[in-house]
Design brief:
Distance between the termini: 17 Å
Radius of gyration: 21 Å
Helix content: 40-55%
Structural class: alpha+beta
Oligomer: single chain
Number of strands: 2
Number of domains: 1
Strand content: 25-35%
Strand order of the largest sheet: 1-2
Mean pLDDT: 87
Number of helices: 2
């Protein structure tokens, strides 16, 4: 399989995930109190929104890359 087809598949998967989940959520721990043996930590959840249009565009570009990777470029053209 050609590398451009693999990139196309990755873009399709990432675009679909962006459409389904609507963003990326991650958790990081903050140390609030640290007094000797007493420690208080807080887990903060952060959300980075991904617009649906970005997921759709990534999927569309991935489909184009997949077809170009499967068929190849027309003869006489080089990259």
């Amino acid at each position: 399989m050609k590398p451009i087809a693999i990139v196309g598949i990755v873009l399709i998967v990432l675009g679909a995930a962006g459409l389904v989940y609507g963003g990326i959520t991650y958790t990081h721990t903050k140390n609030v109190v640290d007094m000797g043996p007493l420690q208080v930590n807080v887990d903060d959840k952060e959300h980075i929104p991904v617009p649906p249009i970005a997921g759709g565009v990534a999927s569309a570009i991935g489909i184009v890359f997949l077809f170009v990777g499967r068929r190849g470029l027309p003869r006489g053209r080089t990259v």
